Amino acid sequence: CMLDYLNDHFATFTVWVAMGIEASGLLHASYLIQMIVSMLAGQPVESNEPPRDAFGNLCYWGKILFSVAFLVFAFTVTLSALFDGKTTMWEGVPSAVAVIFFFGLMTVVGMLEG
Predict the structure, then answer these.
(1) How far apart are CA 63 and CA 16, in angstroms?
(2) 106: number of CA atoms within 13 Å, CB side?
(3) 3-state SS string for 37-83
(4) What is the value of pTM for the model shown?
C-alpha cells in the first residue's frame, strides 16, 4: 500500500479521479481482453470477490459494452484521421506508414505502462 503517496491534496485528488474513471467503466474493455486471454489459455480467472448477482452482472457487462463502444469509436476517429491525412505527420509520409507508426507507438506506450 502506498499511503505515503497520499500526503497532499493533489495526490488525493488524483486518486479520486482515477477511482472515478474506474467506476465509470471507461476502461472495462481490458476485463473483456482478460477473459478472452484466460479462455484461450484454458485457465480460469481467479478472484477474491464474491460472485455477482444479476444486477451486478448487468452493470458489469453494461460497462464492458460501453467501454468497447467507446474504444471502437476512438479507433474509428483516429484511423480515419490518419488515412485522410488530417494529422501533423510529416509531408510526403504515406497514410499506411502513419498507421504503422501509430500502432508502433501505441505498442511502446502499452509496454511502458506495464
Answers:
(1) 19
(2) 9
(3) HHHHHCCCCCCCCCCCCHHHHHHHHHHHHHHHHHHHHHHHHHHHHHH
(4) 0.75
pLDDT tens-place string over residues 83-113: 888 888 888 888 889 899 999 999 999 899 7
Dihedral in degrees, nearest 10, Cα atoms 16, 17, 20, 25: -140
Confidence of residue 6 (pLDDT cuts 50, 70, 90): low
The set of cell numbers assigned to 20 is 472515478
d(CA 6, CA 8): 6
Q: Which of 4-8, 13-17, 35-39, 43-47 has the lowest mean pLDDT?
A: 4-8
* DSSP class of 3: G
